[in-house]
């Protein structure tokens, strides 16, 4: 058993920032991560960090753009916190030495991005995430913060009260990938989940293979609701063969989208008559797919993104990384030819329900970054708003977990206040995907642990349960392999729960997920070794993919309207009277339970009135 | 892999405790799993047959724990080729369709996480950005040389990380602006100077290719020296700090060990001019020692 004040799970941007913040507050903090920190997917972020740094810009304008971009499903207190804190957190990175791109006067450069009313995206070439990740890891090394790398966290040790709001998180259980040891980590003050994205639910994604939504699924099974899971962002420009991301910076710098007939379709077909290529991501992704569906796509699959007219010098100065990506992964030199691009899964707007201080409804459990839903992005995240989210909410969660007094949150978590219960008509049974017959189906609260256990005892019991599950998986001699189950879910999600959604498809996806869940009960690990067993690791991840895929699809089926990234064939209107509310899914007795809570549109000094989103 | 049908339940008492419905469900589940697995293997074989090309990979295997794999060996995998397929794609295909115990690190698939540096046909490369079509067959895939093998293609990275940390790899300056909203100024030229050095993804391909590092365990190595270069050349750190960094770099196992063989520069997947950076630091160190320069 390892013991620390604060345990951070995940070592990307949010995790590193949280750990540094907790350390600043004097806490004994440790990071537990399944990858070494510099391998984290934050490193793949390209575009930049939105921060109102310049004269003529203001955090209020940034907040307005964020609320509008979210299609009015962001909570104003969270969006305003993001925009208010981002400038000083961005400059903090600069003070830590981050190699931002520079203007002639030596100040950090900023550029235009989709859906922004001011060019406020601060960047480091087209490798902003890489620079941010490494800069923050350097600060971690400087402070000597302990990292348990290549430890895969599989379970939260949460007390067993009936209502999630009464539960306390005492630590985590993790599995040392190098040796196969399962061990407990007791957290005296709190656990911060910063496990990043869940793109592996889809088979065409910009996300890393490690992005399997572990934190979201773990928190869910421990009793924290998943919020707004149906809102999945599809980035308009990913390379068709691999899903590799081509930054929005290309369009920000003036890149143009063309269809097969060489038409600049964003204008020609009226998708965004003012902003064209710089409309927000959901708008551009739908425009591209509409072109393809109407027969104007290239090879019936993609469109062209042309940046040749920007000139080689400007491309190398600001977008050099894109030349390499396009050449290495698509065989196209974008200085000489347009790049093929199509929409790909990119970001989960939804996630673990938290307030603007990063706290969940379970005492001592926090979340920050992409795995969390505070919610700042609502129905659609603006480009350049993910990196400020990491540093702003990572820091807040770190401070809070370490015991710093925070302003009282305006966002409520858990089933309190003004929520409404709801039902969704599913064609199949939902939930339940335990491994083996005796293993605890619940990955979170140790259901049979006895209510009296707390602290290290409770962590120890969770460790025993997890050892049992892992032994079962390793001892089982035959059955089905995770790769098959994973592939089925990924393909079904890409086919039916993509940019365009319709009722019958969503129901089919639920049937496919059900079948995958049933197969999963017979999953086995072919590799029997305890040493670096990636087969076991991926088998455990696949469980998370199942829960998350189900949540995304259920939320999408229930939301009978068109908002942000969520497009429904049967419902072509945003329906504010009924749907200005967040979708929440709670894991209750092995099944998802659906409920809603209202969106908070009242900000500090103004209320964000929903308006038609035109660009 | 064939799925075995379990024997009849021998122990009567245990048979009694399992309800008939559950037994039936379990049997159905097994049946389905079996069917799926068979279908899957048939599909894999079919795909390999149907592909215009099949690539032949010879992959290094070793697991200290599994008796069959304690003696290192090479396994042959035949992978159906698809336009654009990389080494990493091929390894994943082999793992997911033939042998789930085949082990390698990988994550981002876009040459930024740095976790899948491998020794392919005798050279250090990132699996994810190496096209199969650029390689001659059979493609030999081995773990990085000069590092301990943990299992199959996974090597122990501890030594590499230790060397990286030995150069104080973090920004240090005494002249921060007062305001929390005011940045330090940096000229475009200076940013340009350090730019390539900041691109390191810690894949350790350079360290693995370096003959000197192979013979001198204490040599800082190209990646760590490049990390130091990144800070030493950053005008925001100031002269005093530069002196301090040069002292670290001038130690016995620092820059002077480099024999300019350029192997690090040749294998760097991010095109960082590592050898050049090391030589530049040597020049700085000489200037520093001669003082009158």
UniProtKB/TrEMBL annotation, chain A:
<keyword id="KW-0274">FAD</keyword>
<feature type="domain" description="Fumarate reductase/succinate dehydrogenase flavoprotein-like C-terminal">
    <location>
        <begin position="486"/>
        <end position="615"/>
    </location>
</feature>
<dbReference type="InterPro" id="IPR036188">
    <property type="entry name" value="FAD/NAD-bd_sf"/>
</dbReference>
<dbReference type="Pfam" id="PF02910">
    <property type="entry name" value="Succ_DH_flav_C"/>
</dbReference>
<dbReference type="Pfam" id="PF00890">
    <property type="entry name" value="FAD_binding_2"/>
</dbReference>
<feature type="active site" description="Proton acceptor">
    <location>
        <position position="281"/>
    </location>
</feature>
<keyword id="KW-0249">Electron transport</keyword>
<keyword id="KW-0285">Flavoprotein</keyword>
<feature type="domain" description="FAD-dependent oxidoreductase 2 FAD-binding">
    <location>
        <begin position="5"/>
        <end position="387"/>
    </location>
</feature>
<keyword id="KW-0560">Oxidoreductase</keyword>
<dbReference type="InterPro" id="IPR003952">
    <property type="entry name" value="FRD_SDH_FAD_BS"/>
</dbReference>
<dbReference type="InterPro" id="IPR015939">
    <property type="entry name" value="Fum_Rdtase/Succ_DH_flav-like_C"/>
</dbReference>
<keyword id="KW-0472">Membrane</keyword>
<dbReference type="InterPro" id="IPR030664">
    <property type="entry name" value="SdhA/FrdA/AprA"/>
</dbReference>
<dbReference type="GO" id="GO:0016020">
    <property type="term" value="C:membrane"/>
</dbReference>
<protein>
    <recommendedName>
        <fullName>succinate dehydrogenase</fullName>
        <ecNumber>1.3.5.1</ecNumber>
    </recommendedName>
</protein>
<dbReference type="InterPro" id="IPR027477">
    <property type="entry name" value="Succ_DH/fumarate_Rdtase_cat_sf"/>
</dbReference>
<dbReference type="InterPro" id="IPR037099">
    <property type="entry name" value="Fum_R/Succ_DH_flav-like_C_sf"/>
</dbReference>
<dbReference type="GO" id="GO:0008177">
    <property type="term" value="F:succinate dehydrogenase (quinone) activity"/>
</dbReference>
<dbReference type="InterPro" id="IPR003953">
    <property type="entry name" value="FAD-dep_OxRdtase_2_FAD-bd"/>
</dbReference>
<comment type="similarity">
    <text>Belongs to the FAD-dependent oxidoreductase 2 family. FRD/SDH subfamily.</text>
</comment>
<keyword id="KW-0813">Transport</keyword>
TrEMBL record, chain B:
<dbReference type="InterPro" id="IPR036010">
    <property type="entry name" value="2Fe-2S_ferredoxin-like_sf"/>
</dbReference>
<dbReference type="InterPro" id="IPR004489">
    <property type="entry name" value="Succ_DH/fum_Rdtase_Fe-S"/>
</dbReference>
<keyword id="KW-0001">2Fe-2S</keyword>
<dbReference type="GO" id="GO:0046872">
    <property type="term" value="F:metal ion binding"/>
</dbReference>
<keyword id="KW-0408">Iron</keyword>
<keyword id="KW-0560">Oxidoreductase</keyword>
<dbReference type="Pfam" id="PF13183">
    <property type="entry name" value="Fer4_8"/>
</dbReference>
<dbReference type="GO" id="GO:0016491">
    <property type="term" value="F:oxidoreductase activity"/>
</dbReference>
<dbReference type="GO" id="GO:0051539">
    <property type="term" value="F:4 iron, 4 sulfur cluster binding"/>
</dbReference>
<keyword id="KW-0411">Iron-sulfur</keyword>
<dbReference type="Pfam" id="PF13085">
    <property type="entry name" value="Fer2_3"/>
</dbReference>
<feature type="region of interest" description="Disordered">
    <location>
        <begin position="1"/>
        <end position="49"/>
    </location>
</feature>
<dbReference type="InterPro" id="IPR025192">
    <property type="entry name" value="Succ_DH/fum_Rdtase_N"/>
</dbReference>
<dbReference type="GO" id="GO:0006099">
    <property type="term" value="P:tricarboxylic acid cycle"/>
</dbReference>
<protein>
    <submittedName>
        <fullName>Succinate dehydrogenase</fullName>
    </submittedName>
</protein>
<feature type="domain" description="4Fe-4S ferredoxin-type">
    <location>
        <begin position="198"/>
        <end position="272"/>
    </location>
</feature>
<keyword id="KW-0479">Metal-binding</keyword>
<comment type="similarity">
    <text>Belongs to the succinate dehydrogenase/fumarate reductase iron-sulfur protein family.</text>
</comment>
<dbReference type="GO" id="GO:0009055">
    <property type="term" value="F:electron transfer activity"/>
</dbReference>
<feature type="domain" description="Succinate dehydogenase/fumarate reductase N-terminal">
    <location>
        <begin position="56"/>
        <end position="161"/>
    </location>
</feature>
<dbReference type="InterPro" id="IPR050573">
    <property type="entry name" value="SDH/FRD_Iron-Sulfur"/>
</dbReference>
<dbReference type="InterPro" id="IPR017896">
    <property type="entry name" value="4Fe4S_Fe-S-bd"/>
</dbReference>
């Amino acid at each position: 058993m390892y013991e620390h004040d604060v345990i951070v799970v995940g070592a990307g941007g949010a995790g590193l920032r949280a750990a540094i913040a907790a350390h600043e507050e004097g806490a004994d903090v440790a990071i537990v991560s399944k990858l070494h920190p510099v391998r984290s997917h934050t490193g793949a972020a390209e575009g930049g960090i939105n921060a109102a740094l310049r004269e003529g810009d203001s955090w209020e304008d940034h907040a307005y753009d964020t609320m509008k971009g979210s299609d009015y499903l962001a909570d104003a207190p969270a969006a305003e916190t993001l925009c208010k804190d981002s400038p000083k957190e961005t400059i903090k990175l600069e003070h830590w030495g981050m190699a931002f791109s520079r203007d002639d006067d030596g100040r950090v450069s900023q550029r235009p991005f989709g859906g922004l009313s001011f060019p406020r995206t601060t960047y480091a070439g087209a490798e902003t995430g890489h620079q941010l990740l490494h800069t923050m890891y350097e600060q971690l090394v400087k402070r000597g913060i302990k990292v348990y790398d290549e430890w895969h966290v599989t379970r939260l040790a949460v007390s067993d009260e009936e209502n999630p709001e009464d539960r306390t998180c005492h630590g985590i259980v993790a599995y040392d990938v190098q040796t196969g040891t399962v061990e407990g980590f007791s957290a005296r003050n709190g656990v911060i989940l910063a496990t990043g994205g869940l793109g592996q639910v889809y088979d065409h994604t910009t996300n890393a293979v490690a992005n399997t939504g572990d934190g979201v699924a773990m928190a869910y099974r421990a009793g924290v609701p998943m919020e707004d899971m149906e809102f999945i962002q599809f980035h308009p420009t990913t390379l068709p063969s691999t899903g590799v991301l081509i930054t929005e910076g290309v369009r920000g710098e003036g890149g143009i989208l063309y269809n097969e007939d060489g038409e600049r379709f964003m204008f020609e077909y009226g998708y965004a008559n003012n902003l064209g290529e710089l409309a927000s991501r959901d708008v551009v992704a739908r425009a591209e797919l509409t072109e393809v569906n109407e027969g104007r796509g290239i090879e019936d699959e993609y469109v062209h993104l042309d940046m040749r007219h920007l000139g080689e010098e400007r491309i190398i100065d600001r977008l050099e990384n894109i030349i390499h990506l396009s050449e290495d992964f698509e065989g196209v030199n974008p200085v000489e030819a347009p790049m093929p691009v199509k929409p790909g899964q990119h970001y989960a707007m939804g996630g673990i329900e938290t307030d603007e201080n990063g706290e969940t409804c379970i005492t001592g459990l926090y979340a920050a970054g992409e795995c969390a839903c505070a919610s700042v992005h609502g129905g659609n995240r603006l480009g350049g708003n993910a990196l400020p989210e990491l540093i702003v909410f990572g820091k807040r969660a770190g401070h809070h977990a370490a015991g710093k007094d925070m302003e009282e949150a305006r966002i409520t978590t858990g089933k309190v206040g003004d929520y409404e219960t709801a039902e969704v008509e599913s064609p199949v049974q939902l939930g339940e995907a335990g491994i083996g017959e005796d293993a605890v189906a619940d990955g979170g609260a140790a259901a049979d642990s006895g209510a009296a256990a707390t602290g290290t005892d409770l962590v120890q019991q969770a460790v025993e349960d997890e050892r049992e599950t892992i032994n079962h998986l390793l001892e089982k001699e035959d059955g089905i392999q995770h790769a098959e189950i994973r592939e089925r879910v990924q393909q079904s999600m890409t086919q039916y729960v993509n940019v365009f959604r319709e009722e019958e498809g969503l129901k089919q996806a639920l049937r496919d997920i059900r079948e995958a869940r049933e197969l999963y009960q017979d999953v086995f690990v072919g590799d029997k070794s305890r040493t670096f067993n990636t087969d076991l690791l991926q088998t455990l991840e696949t469980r998370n993919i199942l829960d998350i895929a189900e949540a995304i699809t259920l939320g999408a089926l229930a939301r009978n309207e068109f908002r942000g990234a969520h497009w429904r064939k049967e419902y072509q209107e945003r329906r504010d009277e009924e749907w200005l509310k967040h979708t929440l899914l709670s894991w209750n007795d092995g099944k998802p339970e659906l409920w809603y809570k209202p969106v908070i549109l009242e900000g500090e000094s103004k209320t964000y009135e929903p308006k038609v989103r035109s660009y | 892999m064939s799925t075995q049908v379990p024997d009849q339940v021998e122990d009567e008492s245990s048979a009694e405790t399992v309800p008939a419905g559950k037994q039936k469900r379990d049997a159905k589940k097994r049946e389905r799993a079996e069917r799926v697995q068979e279908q899957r293997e048939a599909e894999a074989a079919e795909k390999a047959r149907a592909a215009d090309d099949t690539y032949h990979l010879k992959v290094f295997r070793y697991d200290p724990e599994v008796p069959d794999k304690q003696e290192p060996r090479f396994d042959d995998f035949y992978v159906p080729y698809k336009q654009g397929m990389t080494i990493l794609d091929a390894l994943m295909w082999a793992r997911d369709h033939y042998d789930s115990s085949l082990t390698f690190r990988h994550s981002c698939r876009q040459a930024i996480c740095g976790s899948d540096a491998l020794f392919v046909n005798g050279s250090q490369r990132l699996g994810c950005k190496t096209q199969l079509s650029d390689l001659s067959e059979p493609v030999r895939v081995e773990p990085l040389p000069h590092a301990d093998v943990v299992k199959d293609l996974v090597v122990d990275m501890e030594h590499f990380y230790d060397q990286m940390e030995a150069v104080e790899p973090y920004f240090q300056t005494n002249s921060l602006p007062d305001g929390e909203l005011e940045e330090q100024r940096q000229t475009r030229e200076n940013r340009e100077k350090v730019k390539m050095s900041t691109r390191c993804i810690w894949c350790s391909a350079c360290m693995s290719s370096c003959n000197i590092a192979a013979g001198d365990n204490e040599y800082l190595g190209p990646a760590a020296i490049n990390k130091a270069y990144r800070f030493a050349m950053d005008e925001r750190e100031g002269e005093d700090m530069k002196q301090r960094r040069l002292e670290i770099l001038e130690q016995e196992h620092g820059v002077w060990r480099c024999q300019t063989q350029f192997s690090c520069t040749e294998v760097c997947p991010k095109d960082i001019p590592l050898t050049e950076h090391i030589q530049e630091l040597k020049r700085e160190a000489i200037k520093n020692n001669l003082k009158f320069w």
